[in-house]
Hints:
Mean pLDDT: 78
Number of strands: 6
Helix content: 25-40%
Structural class: alpha+beta
Distance between the termini: 11 Å
Amino acid sequence: MRPSAMLAPALAAALALAAAAAQAQTAPEPDVIKALKACSAIKTDGERLACYDKAAQSVTRAQETGEVIIIDKQTARAARRQAFGLELPTLSILDRGADKAETEKLQAVVKTARADAEGRLVVTLEDGAVWRQIDGDVLGKPPKAGTTVEIRKAAMGSYMMKVGAQPAIRVRRSEAGPAR
């Protein structure tokens, strides 16, 4: 299976998490998680084990029904990478435990690059993400297919794209990659 085909489920999971996160911002922690945490306060070994067993069963049921979504760090990293540059503030839940470098910049490979009607660069990455230049700077050498670019967060919701040793240009993500 191609890596890009594996990212589509990760983004779907991320979007499901985003919906849950939007609710979580106003809702308290799920009861099944509270119950699991409460078990650690029980002093008697047998009672504590029984509590954990019961809580684990509740968490399993909640996960199976979609009431609680559990995502590992690798899946969160893949979803965060695929969503990089999109305005999805509820996906910030995926940033928990991530290195700042993972949330602030991205290295990617160019699939295509062209100039739009205004002469500004439009870059499509191998993962399908489309980035549009929003400043008037001109690159000496536009990127070609296979070129690695670095995109990092900048001011006011924009990003800076660096192509090789050239000065960075200001860009904004304009489209999500195609569903695969």
